[in-house]
Sequence to fold (1202 residues):
Amino acid sequence: MRGGLVVTAVLAASLILPVMGDSQNQNSSMTSIYTAPRLADPTTTSTSATPQAAPPLIEQRFDLAGVNPEIVTESQSALQASLDADYELETSIDFLPLVPSASGNEHGHEHEHGHEHEHEHGHEEQDQAGAESRAQQVDQLSDLEPVLATRNSGTKPFTLVGITSAEPFAAGARVLVRVQEDFGWSSWTPLEVSQDLPDGAEAENILYGTEPLLTNSATGVEVRIDTPDGVEISDPSMVLLDSPTIESDADIPEPEFDAGNSGPISTVAASTVSAPMPAIISRAEWGADERLLRSGPKFAPTIKAAFIHHTASKSNYTAEEAPSQMRNLYTYFTKGLKYSDMAYNFIVDRFGRLYEGRGGGMDKAVIGGHTAGFNDQTFAISALGNFQNFKPNDPDMGAIVDSVSSLLAWKLSMNHRDPNGETTLVSDSGAGTSKYKPGQTTNALVVGGHGDIGSTSCPGKHLEAQLPTIRAAAGAKMGASMINPTAVAANWGQGEPVRVRAITNAPLQWNVSIRSQCGDVVRSISGGQGEPGELGIDWDKNNDAGQPVPPGTYTVTMNSNGNGEALYPWVGQARVLATADSPPDPCAPPENFTLTGSGFGHGVGLSQWGARAMANAGMDATSIVTYYYQGTQVAPVQDDMEILVNLEYQKTRVDMRSEALDASGGGLEVSVGGVVVAGSPADVFQFQRGGGQVKVVRISGGATTVIGQGPSATARPVGETLVHVSNKGRGFPATGSRFRYGYVEVTPITVGGKVKLNAVNRLRLHDEYLYGVAEVPNSWPDAAMQAQVLAARTYALSKIDAGLRKSCNCHLDDGYGPFSDQAFAGWSKQSSAQGDRWISAVNATTTSPATGLAILQEGKAIKAFYSSSNGGASQSVADAWGGEGLPYANSVADPYSIDPSNPDASWTKVVTQAEAAQAFGVPAVWQLAVTERFGSGAVKTLTATLADGSVATRTGNEMRSLLGLKSNYVTGIDGNAGIPVAQPAAPEMVVPEVAPPASERSVALRTNAQADHPAGKPFTIKAKVNPAKKGLRVWLQQRVGEEWKTISKKKTKAKGKVTLKVKDPWPPSTTQVYRVVTTKKKVIVGTSVELALGVVPSVKQRTVALLSPAVISKKDGKPFVIKAKMRPGKKGLAVWRQVLVSGDAETGEWRTVGKTKTKAKGKIKFKVKKATPAGSTYIYRLVVVDNRQAAGVSPIITLSVT
Fold:
């Protein structure tokens, strides 16, 4: 539930209009409102108010932390009251009267009284349920624990407050807010936690939050959050917004509604259109800042239903304040919760005025973000206010009902839906308040409240009561109607016709036009219907000349009128089904397009596979790099400066621990705020956010200690030590994320008003950084690896010259985002198989302890771009990314890049019709062709031809991204090259021929050579054998000690491809090394590079807190009990009670002496019958076991037997 009264419905598909503006400046705390041009023609039917720019909107965001005992005490009674409100029985509800039915008054009154009687009976049934709920309430209150209670005073003025979280609030969480206005502090107000979400891609990066509280102007706020068992809220923050009222807000007129009328229903008589568009205040008129849009609108093919919501916010606003509330609400959705736009399609204020909500066209089927699981093919109308508590007076409620029913009549008429009927919807999400799992089908009311399909009280009891009146009014206003038209398919060559079916409420005159997918009208049919009821129009599957049409899909357009009214056209699909002897459909689009190409990556600069082929041909590293970077020289430069490499980007927490490489190592020196502590491999250091600074916490032996906080924090390895760096979602993998050199620094950064943490490795470029660059396998020829070192050193120098990036406090990242610089794996590269060869390649390019060879032009390090391979010629920078280009990064011929040893020398991608249509944003694609190429042969323009002969285009970069291609080097589509490939000639130089080794095959991994994977879950390894051939014998081998053990055998499929599987990677926290070999007569004739698989824990980490004393003293023979609680709580996990039998607690041997399972809410209990013998001391611990892995360990328990 978000916002006011919401109705959801589906509209016919239409062209997507461009979205004006952009999303810049979203991180500033104060943003000016900008009024953009109108986007859709239907908005011209609106109020007469003049669009004006809104005043600057004040935006404030505060991270929330801490529990203030004073605030907890002051708000305790309000917490109890909020629970009382949830369980109170609803009082009687008043209905607005219906206009007498045309079919007779008595029937209408009987139905109305019957409904009231059922409602009263429902109250009797609820009495017992209510009493049971009261009992549940006592348990709920006892489980709630305050996790946050804060005060922010002296803020800039605001009129909206909302609370957000990075993850969903715990079920049962309670949020209370009060604000400081001119007269003092307001009473505490509970904010409903809203888990109603958009669907699909829009839902991926949103924040979760409460319903916003719209207030009078305030300058202070207190917040209290309670959760069951004190479950932590993830990154809680508070959003404060203020969009002041302006003079033009008062110019928006009142709705045209006669309160003296006998009822809110007004019918539309003999109009030119059966249900015209009502007056709607456009986005421009209420002051929507189109620059806040995070993405353009998405559209559904039709509208099937409408949902009514309420905003659950302030209800006592004036007519002049309503537009500013709209601006606040819009900003909260886009900037506070990160939605792409307003959640609702339309808003109605308490005076009955309608507002355009989500943009994209009011007459279009715009997909909103209002009803989780059911945003597609629906629309929503939300009432601005809290209609659970607020009941408008009769004239105002009448105006709301009149406006909403008029809007419903218009939208549902266009889509031929019955507001008093039902429809079938399919859920695509189980998130938020949705009652349904993805893919589950339900029968839904065409016009329903949010609570009819979601677990929520939305739209509030006073609005819910008016839904029958709203439905009846909408139906009356629709006038002559045709409901749920469909076309029933029929087989080609058989007697049954294709039949168009619908239900009508008036006699109709109609004409039908049937068009093939080629765009030709094949048949026109006209007729009439004498009486309302079932309508059936038969098409005999012949064209106008009386000849049978071929099988296929045909577009049916039906225009009709009745009772002097023109109905909205209906456009649908009719299918003539193919049979065994039917001819093909000459107008059907292809099912698939087969694209062939070569290369992998952007293709600019050096080709790594090309360098490998050159090295095999005898070229040295200098010859290789100067071939790709024309006009450059290789010379020594100083490279002993410090470089900052981003390891963790904008995280909420960073974890570190140490690992000893030998007996002298394992130490970790952690420094923060002037405090320096020494750690060991037994310690985990958590770097957290704390009031805009970095807070460091040490966890050792189950105990947590706060070290301190400051503007930054560092972790330095002592001796031969590795530093594991991770974030809270990843744990500590056995491989990867381990760093030996320099030190790790954690700094805070404010992003969008929220504090995040960056972790960077500060180390020396000359060797420490280059040792960890993981761009090519260690098994490659020396010259190829040395060429990679030259390119990597030069690229890093150019990044140092460019200065620090503010968003990460780094020169470059580790290749895993957000900038996609060169891959840096730290110790994992140096310690991997044949890692010594890579170290030798780095050392071979150094000229002194402080200098190394780099690629220069005019004495300056170049921007040494490189990629895996190109399609036979490198791309210039200008062609790849635009701009003026670089003199050393032009296109050069590269036959080496498509050497047969390169697994991507040629590739094939099958693009389905659906994928092609989606990429071009069109219903279907009849032909794909390359219509422009760059000089390198890379695609400049890809063109799609549509059914009517029109075209749509995509650039080469767009093509690669949208179709998921390996490169822009597409050589053919369905065997047609389109514009011929004319690549540049190779420079005049002696180029040794590259020949593959005789009688040998190569094996290329199609899976990354370094990967982390959850323990116990199968891992797939893909490879390709070259020269390719079907039926080659392939073995998957695992390195065990110094030997290779064959664990599975398969044969290659077409094109030499093979897929193998590691069934059960185990145990966790280990690194397993695999390779794929091809054999002939049991002799290995080809070997892949080694694949290092880091087996990481696959279970959620949990904490185990003792509820009983950690030190117990019992007399001989007496029983004792150990109690604990696991968080997050879960019932049914295994728990082992272990006793220390030798050594110390950290390294000694533990023996399991008892087992049990967690109870409800994670509670644990061990009862030992007797402690014996006297004089003994036992050390116990409790271990939570999940999927064969330790998920959590309790602090140590010491038992003394007296």
The chain has 16 helices and 69 strands. The two ends are 62 Å apart (CA to CA). The chain has a mean pLDDT of 83.
